[in-house]
Structure formats: structure tokens, C-alpha cells
Design brief:
By secondary structure, this protein is mainly beta. Helix content is about 10%, strand content about 30%. The chain has a 5-stranded mixed sheet with strand order 11-8-9-10-12. The protein has a 5-stranded mixed sheet with strand order 16-13-14-15-17, with no helix packed on it. About 5% of the residues have low confidence.
């Protein structure tokens, strides 16, 4: 786990998990946010946060957030929000660029890649007074999902911030993985899961949930344990109910098609498919 007073976990380090921990808040009166990031043995992470009101200090912390309920009441409509939802801003005194949500809360961009999944240029954010940006509370979700300009890699596993459903993206379709049992049976990896905005998911056709655990969905990339040949599973041209495996001719073809070797599923020898035509450039 890692604990921080900073949503970006600046200078924070992972340590062994413990059910309790002494923690020092930033000085000054005000509503403080403490963030906790937990990492599984498989490398997946999840972040939680909570607020606490610090009093009895000799001064007021200008960087503390307002009480969450106060912010919610003040920003019941878009017109009451001091900044425009869907836009990006930074304060004159801070390098962090924030995204303003539809609920008039802010989320900090953790890196350049995430920023450019929402915007096309560094000119797309505005610099405002520190007091203006501080008047907007941090969003309850501290992480920033990838935005609608983001194109996940082939075979990506994704979810949204406010929904625990995990989808696998194959070709132009999305398949819901309904349980941990199905997830493990299909040999997916927890650290493949990315958090994306709802607008990213809307680009894919919903194919419902995966119920079969002895075969993989069409367009999954697979290989057998003792073989270097990578196949793509596809519908049988003569019978769409059946599946065939099509060998990818070469590494050049593999890369040209935009595939990633770390998204290839290694399957058991008992998972058998008829051979289809080889995929060439």
C-alpha cells in the first residue's frame, strides 16, 4: 500500500499492507484529503480517499478543500460552477493541470499521455487564479481515466471509474467479463486492466457477457505453451457458430496489424480449434 496527502502520490512509496497507520496531515486548519493506494500481488492497483477536518492550528491552509457537502450545494448547476466542465485548468502557483468534471469537481492529470487523451494541444488548458481553482473540490475518484481520444491496444481490458464491470476489447467489439471465475479461466491478467472514460467504451459494439470458459471470444490472440505461433480466433467462414484459429504469418504482419505480444493469451492444449487460413500482410 501507499499513503499520501497528494492525489498524484508524489514521493510516496509502497510499503507492506497494514490495517492501521499513523499519518501526518499537511499543516493548517481546513478539510484535508488522505489517499490510499493498494496494490495486489498481480500488480493491479486501486485508490481510495477520505476527508478529515483539521482544527486547532495557528493558521488556515489555503490549499485545503471545502467541505464536500458545501461544494455539492454550491455547484448544483453548471452555471454556478466557477470553471467550465469538460475543460482543463491550472493555477498560477501550481504545475498540476486539472480536468473539471460535469459535477464541478476536479481531477488532476497524472501524466502527458492522459492529458492528450482528452485534448490535442498544450494550448487547450487555461491558467486561473489559485483561489478559483481551490474553490472547486477534488473529485471522489482520485484517478483520471483515459479520455475519448485514447485508442486502447488490441485485446485491452478496460473499466470505467464508477462501474466495476471489466470488458475485453476485441476488434470493434466489447465483451463483459462477468466474474472472477471467468476472468481467471480465460487467463487474463489483472494488471492489464485500464480505466477509461465512458466515451471510450461507447465506440465499441456491445457483444454481451462472456459465459464460455473453455473457449475464448472471436478475435482473441492466442498461442499454445510450447509453440511460438500466434493465432487469431475468428468465426468459421462456412459456419459462424464455429471458430477457427488463423496463424499470423510473421512478426512483421503482427506489428502491422497493431497487435501487442503482451496481450496474447497462452491457452491449454485442450483448447482446440480448427485451422483457418494464415493471416498475411
Amino acid at each position: 500500500m501507499a499513503i499520501s496527502n497528494d492525489a498524484n502520490f508524489t514521493n510516496a512509496s509502497f510499503e507492506n499492507y497494514s490495517t492501521t497507520k499513523d499519518w501526518t496531515l499537511t499543516p493548517g486548519n481546513g478539510t484535508k484529503v488522505v489517499y490510499a493506494k493498494f496494490r495486489s500481488a498481480d500488480g493491479g492497483t486501486i485508490i481510495y480517499s477520505d476527508t478529515i477536518e483539521l482544527i486547532g492550528q495557528s493558521f488556515t491552509d489555503s490549499n485545503s478543500i471545502k467541505n464536500e457537502n458545501t461544494i455539492k450545494n454550491e455547484n448544483t448547476t453548471e452555471n454556478n460552477c466557477p470553471l467550465t466542465p469538460g475543460k482543463a485548468y491550472k493555477a498560477k502557483s501550481n504545475a498540476t493541470i486539472y480536468y473539471i468534471t460535469e459535477d464541478c469537481t476536479k481531477r488532476g492529470f497524472p501524466n502527458e499521455k492522459t492529458y492528450f487523451s482528452y485534448f490535442s494541444s498544450w494550448k487547450d488548458f487555461s491558467t486561473v487564479e489559485t483561489t478559483t481553482l481551490n474553490s472547486i473540490s477534488l473529485d471522489k475518484y482520485t484517478s483520471m481515466p483515459m479520455g475519448e481520444k485514447y485508442s486502447p491496444t488490441y485485446g485491452a481490458l478496460v473499466k470505467t471509474l464508477d462501474n466495476a464491470r471489466v470488458y475485453v476489447l476485441l476488434d470493434s467489439s466489447k465483451y463483459w467479463i462477468p466474474s472472477e471465475t471467468v476472468f481467471k479461466a480465460l487467463r487474463y491478467s489483472w494488471n492489464w486492466i485500464e480505466t477509461v472514460s465512458e466515451k471510450v467504451l461507447e465506440k465499441y459494439t456491445d457483444q454481451g457477457e462472456i459465459t464460455e470458459t473453455t473457449t475464448h471470444p472471436n478475435y482473441t490472440l492466442v498461442k499454445y505453451l510450447n509453440s511460438s505461433t500466434v493465432y487469431r480466433l475468428e468465426p468459421d467462414p462456412s459456419d459462424n457458430i464455429k471458430q477457427v484459429k488463423r496463424a499470423i504469418a510473421s512478426e512483421t504482419t503482427f506489428k502491422k496489424l497493431g497487435f501487442r505480444f503482451d496481450r496474447v493469451i497462452t491457452i491449454a492444449d485442450s483448447e482446440i480449434y480448427e485451422n483457418g487460413e494464415t493471416i498475411v500482410e
